[in-house]
Prior knowledge:
The protein is α+β, with helices and mostly antiparallel strands. The protein has 34 helices and 30 strands. α25 links the parallel β28 and β29. 47% of the residues are buried.
Amino acid sequence: MSANSLPEGAAVWHSLEVNKALDLLDSNADSGLTSQDIQQRLQQYGPNELEETAGRSAWEILLDQFKNIMLLMLIGVALISGFLDLMRLQSGNLKPGEVPFKDTIAILAIVILNGILGYVQESRAEKALAALKKMTSPLVRVIRDARLVEIAAKELVPGDVMQLEAGMQIAADGRLIEESNLQVRESALTGEAEAVNKQASLKLPEETSLGDRLNVVFQGTEVVQGRAKILVTNTGMTTELGKIATMLQSVETEPTPLQQRMTQLGNVLVTGSLILVAIVVAGGVIQDRGFKNIQELLEVSLSMAVAVVPEGLPAVITVTLALGTQRMVRQNALIRKLPAVETLGSVTTICSDKTGTLTQNKMVVQSVSTNNKTFRITGEGYAPTGDFQLDGQKISPEELPEISALSVACAVCNDSVLQKEQGEWAILGDPTEGALLTLAGKAGIEKDQWNSKLTRVAEFPFSSERKRMSVISQVQEVATGEASSRGVDPAIAGFLHSEPYLMFTKGSPELTLARSTQIHLGNDTGPLTEKQRQKILAENDQMASKGLRVLGFAYKPLAQIPPEGSDEVFEQDLVWLGLVGMLDAPRPEVRLAVQECRDAGIRPVMITGDHQLTARAIATDLGIAQEGDRLITGQELQRMTDQELEQNVDLVSIYARVSPEHKLRIVQALQRRGRFVAMTGDGVNDAPALKQADIGIAMGITGTDVSKEASDMVLLDDNFATIVSATKEGRVVYTNIRRFIKYILGSNIGEVLTIASAPLIGLGGVPLTPLQILWMNLVTDGLPALALAVEPPEPDVMKRPPFSPRESIFARGLGSYIIRIGIIFAIITIALMWWAYQHTHAAGYQGDRDAWKTMVFTTLCIAQMGHAIAIRSNNRLTIEMNPFSNIFVLAAVVVTTILQLMLVYVPPLRDFFGTHYLNMQELGVCIGFSALMFVWIELEKIFLRIMGKKAV
């Protein structure tokens, strides 16, 4: 067999006759392949396994953390600081009790800690492919050398003839050779809950979508019923499952908005710092007319470099995101990747799978038609509680014999079981039959009771050719309510004359109606006229146009039990009962969630493998689309170029009968249009799109392991409405991150300007050491920043459009605020520094002349406490707020102030941090200058309120 003789790709096998497929693969349906063929094909195609491409190693991920520009600058600072300490150590210029290299050790410790934090977040290995591999069957039965043998699934090759039975997991893609009542559950691949009836004899058009290829089977799906013989057509990475694996591995992970903003922040801070360092060094050299004070200028530069880098920011952001994940878990949203917490707040489009996400993944009867009357049925899920409504009015089923008769047929012609488990109604068996049992229960007909009234004695099972099933029951006498009287139950009394058996038939409405000659009217029967037939067919079309799956019901009294295989004879001259239309019903809470999405400027889009009529019905019902909105099918998508799809993607809210490749293309087209996309899904077919999306959201209950591993977030309750709660939390987290960045960077700019000004205004020495700056950035900035991270949400957080995910971290006035506050910070501290320097260098001063540096250090730290209290609200004054609404800010301010005072008044800490004792007058001056920061911010709020502007 030549590879050139094979069709290109798997898309054509369903369009070939069985014999043509066997010829192309040079195989035989009865004897299979020979041993020689198998060896050649194993070499040509390789084993039937999913292949994994190599990703980054753990070491590469760790090293990548230290390519961050801010960490690189800190590493440089640590090395220069160590070099200066080494020079002082060798020259004997260390002060008594001074510990060498403490700045270097402290800075490198921060660098390593930040590197580890980044590594932990990023190193979670992608396990989607491993989960995909679990879906392959370990052992299979094949015909080789005219013998039936059992082999490992990885040894399968194209051309093998494989046998399938109920309960087996299919190990490769294949064309059906022959089948008997074969039903395959393809929900993991197509996302649709209902088992598919397969037919070997079909020859389908090439453009037939994946979910409609009824003459082929796919790797990773499960045989629910029947048996078959198949010709293996594709193995390994050429199967539909293999294509998903290829797509998963080809999707490149983009940085999240937060990661992009932090990179931008680092670039701005480091560039600004280097420019400022160059100005200070150049100014110092010009002022001194030489390099005699170069060591002092280098120390100033080192302090400025440390001051500009917010060393505590990565830790604060990580803790903030972790707190966000905890709050989300309480709302049933499990975050798998930390940055996804903030990313959710930027979502502009939610692409949602239908089955199990927007719907309940439970078939629910919506409509019943009997005797020219159509009833609407209410109720949720499988619970047998709900109303029958006629023209909007509630009616009692007992008052209408036709309803009771149809309900008996639903209960008796049924192989499923309705039961209550842990307070929840559940179905054991087929979801369609489960919906019929629920309908019967709403009419007061319970299957268990009727099994004793109508004992099943024979059946004609469902087959894909007949498209119907029949159950034959023996009629049992029961107590009729009159004294000592026994007879047939009144609900079926009109079915019988003297016959001892009843046959109930359900199936395709058209085929069942074609075999009916009479119609059930009240408690009697009458001839089925042509006018009545046309009206029933019109009602069937009307139900189908609403996306309902419609079944027709009929019955026939029998004098004897039919012999096996006599269905063609006995399934004639039936008495028509009515139509039942069902739907995988929408989740009741999703309508409100969709409306909330729209209020928040988020566009919901449905992407499903289901039929377009069903998709449109559900989307319209939920408010995702309006009547008449455009819908695109998988076949239309297949014919579209990427450019055509990109032009239409903002205009379409429903995609039906789509394949995994289509879902991925839709997400990519939206992203090229600048949309920030969340994709929800539960099947294997959703995994590539979940990974490609900016936020991949998997279902926790119905979701496959593959979809969960490819996602950023898992909905523990499979509830679309939970996404809205998670999005709100994401917006709150981003708002709070901006709040504490304002807080941290405002003080950092103040520190840098203060340090830079010292040599320029002629003060001797550096006011702050790198160790003291690290203390401020980690403790006095870090603790209040963490407290600000748990500020409650603003009232209008979900009443505005999402902020652009591509906006700068400095957007919407944040940059100007940081610069403005930093300058005010610096002015206040420089004024204090000038006074303190004059005070400590005045004649008769009793303390250490370097105490002015400690006053600068203390003022900067305590001023930040006032900043933390004032920044809690952008517009409200502090006196207008409840101080206990965020008790953590109050606690952080008290604890940080005490810790700062310990550095001044506890001798061991004072020696280690290089601070000096301050008397009460000096401490009072520091507190007074610090309070000016709080006063300024509050005055800004009053000014903005007067001007009618809203603060950033």
